[in-house]
Amino acid sequence: MNQFEVTINGTTLKLTAEDLAAMSTAMMDAMRTPSEKNLS
């Protein structure tokens, strides 16, 4: 399993390739339908 670490403003997130794919899909959905809630 591929795992990535991303640090933003001192906070480190450990993500898998699957996490990144899910986030990408959610962001694309949010851009297509900006008036709907896609992220929780």
UniProtKB/TrEMBL annotation:
It comes from the Bacteria. This is Uncharacterized protein. It comes from Vreelandella olivaria.
